[in-house]
Design brief:
Blueprint: H1 3-11, E1 16-19, E2 23-30, E3 33-35, E4 38-40, E5 43-49, H2 58-67, H3 71-89, E6 94-96, E7 100-105, E8 108-113, E9 129-130, H4 139-142, H5 144-158, H6 165-220, E10 243-250, H7 253-265, E11 271-275, E12 281-288, H8 291-304, E13 310-313
Antiparallel strand pairs: 1-2, 2-5, 3-4, 4-9, 6-7, 7-8, 10-12, 10-13, 11-12
Length: about 325
């Protein structure tokens, strides 16, 4: 598997993936965009920073875990891949599948991201699309109303329309009484609504009174249990801690115990995690059941306490 495949896997879960002695891929969260008819869902914008090159253990630990190889072997594999990348950049463009392209300009590494992949897992299944443009009636179509008017006038000339004045008056009276009739129904509806509101308020007040009575009864009640229920003992299984941040390995078991005591006095939760294949007793700063927590703590320890600390995974 190529190195960019491991980087791609980590970009889905983390916002910064460092390739030692090369640079860091940084993901910035961006909101959805709408440009004219083009809709783009929320996404992670991938950038590259050549100044961040210190090994934080994330990439190497991921490779070691996926391929079931030692951590140091994973480090050597990363170094070998980075050397090939640098040699290729001297003459050609470096293409990392689904991530982007690198090329040299005046001894400076430039990065062009491949934006066809969305590394934001919350946007899974959402793709960019272009909506159809809304077409509106042209002025020519709108102005057809003038043509329609001329056609109506022509029809009226051929078959005149006569209006009965008396019938028109009767229609006006009918409309007036119909309006009064509708207004009366509106007033009745408002009265019924006010009545229903009053009934609802009275009902709520009655419920609140009953609730206070019930609360007082519960507060003054005395419960006597003649035969108490049997005690139930529930046994819990502690999670297995298989990720250990190693502080050192000792041929003398007493030296290992002394190291544990020293670390614990300095605030660590140190312990002995068995012997390795060379029969050396291994001492851990911390032990975790979560790989993510172990990686985070390892990065802090390598930065502030011991640069040579490493992660041991015991199945």
């Amino acid at each position: 598997m190529k190195l960019e495949r491991y980087i791609k896997d980590l970009l889905y879960r983390y916002d910064c993936v460092i390739v030692p002695e090369f640079g860091a891929f940084i993901a910035n969260h961006k909101s959805a965009k709408v440009e004219e008819q083009n809709f783009k869902p929320p996404f992670k914008q991938i950038t590259f920073n050549t100044l961040i090159q210190n090994n934080d253990g994330l990439l190497a630990n991921h490779i070691a875990q996926v391929d079931k190889i030692p951590y140091k072997t994973a480090i050597n594999y990363i170094k070998f891949e980075v050397e090939e990348w640098v040699n290729k950049l001297l003459d050609n463009e470096l293409i990392l599948e689904d991530i982007g392209n690198f090329y040299m300009v005046d001894d400076t590494i430039n990065f062009e991201v491949n934006d066809t992949i969305n590394y934001l897992t919350s946007s899974f299944g959402l793709t960019s699309f272009i909506s159809d443009k809304i077409t509106r009636e042209s002025e020519k179509v709108v102005n057809n109303s003038f043509v329609y008017k001329k056609q109506v006038e022509k029809i009226e000339n051929q078959a005149p329309i006569y209006i009965n004045v008396e019938k028109r008056k009767k229609t006006a009276y009918f409309i007036k009484y119909a309006a009064i009739f509708v207004l009366g129904f509106s007033i009745i509806g408002l009265g019924k609504k006010a009545y229903d509101t009053k009934i609802e308020k009275d009902y709520i007040v009655a419920l609140e009174k009953q609730q206070k009575i019930n609360t007082n009864k519960i507060q003054t009640a005395t419960f006597v249990i003649d035969s108490p229920l049997p005690t139930i003992n529930i046994s819990t299984v502690a999670p297995i801690k298989k990720y250990h941040i190693i502080a050192g390995a000792f041929r003398s078991e007493q030296n290992a115990l002394n190291k544990v005591a020293q670390l614990n006095s300095n605030g660590f939760n140190a312990s002995i995690v068995g012997k390795n294949k060379w029969n050396l007793t291994q001492v851990a700063f911390y032990s975790f059941s979560s790989l993510e927590k172990a990686n985070n703590k390892l990065a802090m320890i390598k930065k502030h306490t011991a640069k040579d600390a490493w992660l041991l995974i015991k199945e």
